[in-house]
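ok here's Pyoverdine/dityrosine biosynthesis protein, seq below lol
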Amino acid sequence: MLYFIKSMIKATWMSNNILTIESLLADSVPTSNYEWADEFPNLSLKIPNTNFEGDRTSLLKECSIYNDFDIEKFYNSYKNHSETQLIIEFLNHHAFQFNSRRRFRESKRIQNIIDQVIKQSASLNIVIPIFCVIGNRAKRIEPTTLTFAEECSLHSLQNISSLFSKVTNIELRFQIIADSNFYVRPLGSDPVISSKYLDDLKKYLIDENLENLYIYDMCDMAKHDIKKFEDSYMEMYEKLSLDSSYGLDNAEHKAWVSAMAGTITTRDIIAPYNEIVKTFRDNDFSSKFGKEVLRRTERAFIDYRSLKYAMSKMSWEEKYFPNSIRATIHQKQQDILGLRIYPEYKKTSKLLPYHGVAVLKKVDEKYCMLIQPEINIASQIGCKRYINNYAFSDFYLDL
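and the structure came out like this:
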């Protein structure tokens, strides 16, 4: 994500000793993840190819394999354990799990869920909220559409399910909750782009017969009680309007604001490229562009947290996916499955598929997918760009 950056505005304190938005941005992660070219990258000069010369399907297959998981070795290690323990160890394997393996292994809550699944001879559901539209041109120069990055991630999850079926008699289903429409307002995303993005994700699952993957609109998870949702939203909105740090310590507040600043839509703020670079690379928010970024961040932060709180009060997981395991795409100090939604996620690649573009690199004669900000990769001579059916960037091949 577009990390912010030391602000030129001096840190000040509110009367309750809570940092302002400007000063919160001052201590966020530096911009070393971004390489700003002298000029905005001209994608037309990359001579885009409509079709990859080779077999794109084979590339998808190769990049979605979890090479760190040796199924024979795993099965031989745990075949004499209880079925519950075998399932826990499978999900907890370092190829798939990036959060605390000890917490997950020792969790009575996780054990109880799996025990019930086995007792009822039911499918094991993993609920994972992913896929959002990010209108930040440093991440994707063009609007967010279905690309190699999303497709590879979906195939990766299907591969986990397929591996699971080979070591157990239980079906593993991924219940994907897309929040691309849900967070349109705080993130400032184009509703047409967001809606089309979700439509394309759903269609892809059908076209590719990814039978263990299901995708839903997060908005639908709150429709069963819109009064409760609205009341919960307003309850939190009123509190955050007075103190946006409500419920957070200073470190958490900084992290939230920094993440929000890198996620909001800035592609529609008309500004010269050098002003954008000055804002982010040179840590100067004094320009018209910089001030607009700060204004949007503050509003988005309150709205986003209020929506998130309202959703948490809906008990939607228990209602729609009872006795399921919740997974996350973030590092958390809890007994929760931190899911590598593609093989290199949280290893050599830190970004979510929609927070950048797919860059395919050969490692030990095999291609792997990394996600990088497009601003980094678009100007590199050694990378070849390919486009999707929207004529937007599909992936880059590191030659």
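fwiw Residues 1-18, 26-32 have pLDDT under 50 and may be disordered. kinda neat tbh
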